């Protein structure tokens, strides 16, 4: 078996292989816009092939930007399209591809990789840890009245079709993702080709409710559709203003001929349930992990994010997949960090997967100490780590890749 890099000429076989790995069939030609693979970066993909040249496995990566705590924008490899044909599973193909991919990412100088895990048991062994989480809210329209009247901010909402407002929602999403820790960029290539899921994708019809401020400037949007059961399904509400988010939620809940409203993904700190007269009117229909993070270069990753508490702690970090074990002194002063090798006694011992989980501030180190995943060697070490690794707000990612 060989793991090799791909070129544009490999697109067809790459797509056919990953679809077969997931038991699916091609629904449209690979060259058509609207398919996820129209945004593939074939110079970042890998194929596992047999000695006689048959493709049996795939792994890819996108070039994203990830917003770190402190509104710091950092490059991140978005790992995607990882699969092995059913005929060749449990033979080390996946492990070989992931090892080669990490080596390639490091050779590019990248220090962060992220992915969405199809199964939660697969990617820990490769060094990835769940780092952001998302809830799905479902509300009965009859019960979901707001406790207070709407804010009189002079704003307005206009209804557009997805095909008519691509530039507006692309700009609004870009503004939003730059201030939300855990958010990923949506490169223009995705919007231009309609790749991925709605509202980026143009394959499925969507209404877009665009909110404008008192001066007529767009400052938020909601993407939605109605299903056959009279449920209004909101793909996402995008804005940097809680008042605008509330206005867009009111719009969705005020839609005629609708029995229920579902918002696909909201962060755990979303205030909507607290804005309703009946707190129980918004039920959490799903609550799970979303973005998984892998640190490829621990010192560079730790010194790249913003920090909000001064202090120092020694982290003993094990990376069994790469056979690496290092002890780092993390020192934070005035929002910036130094991270250097040390032989001092550790405050915490942890696996690189758990370092990925706490990196964005969405998982507290003390929770993982309680779970037995992180070992605290000194009294107060877990509480100190909680203070150090916190973010300015809950990290959250909407982008699907």
From TrEMBL:
<dbReference type="InterPro" id="IPR041380">
    <property type="entry name" value="Acetyltransf_17"/>
</dbReference>
<feature type="domain" description="N-acetyltransferase">
    <location>
        <begin position="1"/>
        <end position="149"/>
    </location>
</feature>
<keyword id="KW-0012">Acyltransferase</keyword>
<keyword id="KW-0808">Transferase</keyword>
<protein>
    <submittedName>
        <fullName>UPF0256 protein</fullName>
    </submittedName>
</protein>
<dbReference type="Pfam" id="PF13527">
    <property type="entry name" value="Acetyltransf_9"/>
</dbReference>
<dbReference type="InterPro" id="IPR000182">
    <property type="entry name" value="GNAT_dom"/>
</dbReference>
<dbReference type="InterPro" id="IPR036527">
    <property type="entry name" value="SCP2_sterol-bd_dom_sf"/>
</dbReference>
<feature type="binding site">
    <location>
        <begin position="82"/>
        <end position="84"/>
    </location>
    <ligand>
        <name>acetyl-CoA</name>
    </ligand>
</feature>
<comment type="similarity">
    <text>Belongs to the acetyltransferase Eis family.</text>
</comment>
<feature type="binding site">
    <location>
        <begin position="90"/>
        <end position="95"/>
    </location>
    <ligand>
        <name>acetyl-CoA</name>
    </ligand>
</feature>
<comment type="subunit">
    <text>Homohexamer; trimer of dimers.</text>
</comment>
<dbReference type="InterPro" id="IPR025559">
    <property type="entry name" value="Eis_dom"/>
</dbReference>
<feature type="binding site">
    <location>
        <begin position="118"/>
        <end position="119"/>
    </location>
    <ligand>
        <name>acetyl-CoA</name>
    </ligand>
</feature>
<dbReference type="InterPro" id="IPR016181">
    <property type="entry name" value="Acyl_CoA_acyltransferase"/>
</dbReference>
<dbReference type="Pfam" id="PF13530">
    <property type="entry name" value="SCP2_2"/>
</dbReference>
<feature type="active site" description="Proton donor">
    <location>
        <position position="123"/>
    </location>
</feature>
<dbReference type="InterPro" id="IPR022902">
    <property type="entry name" value="NAcTrfase_Eis"/>
</dbReference>
<dbReference type="InterPro" id="IPR051554">
    <property type="entry name" value="Acetyltransferase_Eis"/>
</dbReference>
<feature type="active site" description="Proton acceptor; via carboxylate">
    <location>
        <position position="401"/>
    </location>
</feature>
<dbReference type="Pfam" id="PF17668">
    <property type="entry name" value="Acetyltransf_17"/>
</dbReference>
């Amino acid at each position: 078996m060989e793991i090799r890099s791909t070129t544009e000429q490999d697109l067809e076989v790459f797509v056919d292989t990953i679809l077969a790995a997931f038991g699916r069939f091609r629904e449209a030609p690979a060259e058509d816009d609207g398919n996820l693979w129209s945004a593939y970066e074939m110079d970042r993909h890998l194929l596992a092939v047999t000695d006689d040249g048959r493709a049996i496995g795939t792994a890819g990566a996108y070039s994203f930007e990830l917003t770190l705590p402190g509104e710091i924008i950092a490059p991140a490899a978005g790992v995607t399209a990882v699969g092995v044909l059913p005929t060749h599973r449990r033979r080390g193909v996946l492990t070989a591809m992931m090892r080669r991919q990490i080596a390639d990412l490091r050779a590019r100088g990248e220090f962060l990789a992220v992915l969405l895990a199809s199964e939660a048991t697969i990617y820990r062994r490769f060094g990835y840890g769940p780092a952001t989480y998302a809830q799905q809210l479902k509300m009965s329209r009859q019960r979901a009245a707001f406790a207070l009247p709407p804010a009189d901010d002079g704003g307005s909402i206009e209804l557009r079709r997805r095909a008519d407002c691509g530039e507006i929602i692309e700009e609004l999403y870009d503004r939003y993702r730059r201030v939300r820790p855990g958010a990923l960029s949506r490169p223009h290539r995705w919007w231009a080709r309609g790749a991925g899921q709605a509202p980026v994708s143009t394959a499925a019809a969507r209404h877009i409710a665009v909110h404008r401020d008192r001066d007529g400037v767009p400052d938020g949007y909601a993407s939605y559709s109605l299903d056959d059961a009279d449920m209004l399904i909101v793909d996402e509400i995008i804005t940097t203003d809680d008042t605008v988010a509330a206005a867009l939620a009111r719009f969705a809940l005020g839609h005629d001929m609708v029995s229920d409203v579902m918002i696909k993904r909201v962060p755990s700190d979303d205030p909507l349930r607290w804005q309703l007269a009946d707190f129980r009117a918004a039920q959490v229909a799903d609550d799970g992990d979303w973005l998984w993070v892998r640190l490829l270069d621990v010192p560079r990753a730790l010194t790249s994010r913003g920090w909000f508490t001064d202090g120092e702690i020694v982290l003993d970090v094990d990376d069994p997949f790469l056979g690496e074990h290092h002890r780092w002194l993390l020192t934070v002063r005035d929002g910036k960090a130094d991270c250097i090798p040390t032989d001092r006694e550790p405050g915490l011992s942890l696996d690189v997967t758990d370092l990925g989980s706490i990196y964005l501030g969405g998982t507290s180190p003390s929770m993982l100490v309680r779970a037995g995943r992180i070992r605290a060697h000194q009294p107060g070490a877990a509480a100190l780590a909680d203070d150090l690794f916190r973010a300015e707000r809950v990290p959250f990612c909407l982008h699907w890749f």
